[in-house]
Structure prediction request, 234 residues.
Amino acid sequence: MLLGVGRHSLPKKRRNPSVYFVSALAPAAVFLAVKGDTNPVSASVAAEKEPVAAPAPPPVEEQATPCCVEIVAAPATSPQPALLTDPGSAATSPASLVSASRWRVVDRTLPAGVAPERGLQVRTILTSRSISAVFPEINNIGGVRSDALRWHPNGLALDVMIPNPTSQAGIALGNQIVAYVLANAKRFGIQDAIWRGTYYTPGGAQSGGYGHYDHVHVTTTGGGYPDGDEVYYR
Prediction:
């Protein structure tokens, strides 16, 4: 039996549109996947595949000194550092670190010595004070006095009295004082010294008939009378 087929005939099977979309994308996905394989591997992927090792430290001689090290004063409970000697002559190691509060203050001023300074000129005062500081055995130094020569009356001369001047210790002490003033002749302005019959000058010595067996006579070039504001240094 023939069935009539008109507008109401069996419908044709319809394709799902998404099939076309998937079909169209499939070749592109393959193309992108193949193209992606030709690019370098990303850093994150490389890190997962092969961990990066830490660089080896440089040799000891190439390592830099640490930056910004701060040096601070030692606390009061720290061991006492060694005291410094005379800063005018001592060699201080640059590696030595001493707290600023522990610097030893050295007073280089010369106090008045045993000689009466009234009427003495400035270089004579410097000489007498220096002798008193270096030779504490000396307890009597004469200065200005009446004399036929001008040296003592004008404040240019000293009489350094030697204890037990005829003993070996006394003679040695007198010799040391003569050597000391001559070694500092330029600073003290020494003109001459007389001890045990010998006349000494910075240029040499002359023996015979000069007396002075109980004291060392010292003459300076003076330098003028003080005005009261002088400071004498060692």
About this structure: Residues 1-55, 60-78, 81-87 have pLDDT under 50 and may be disordered.
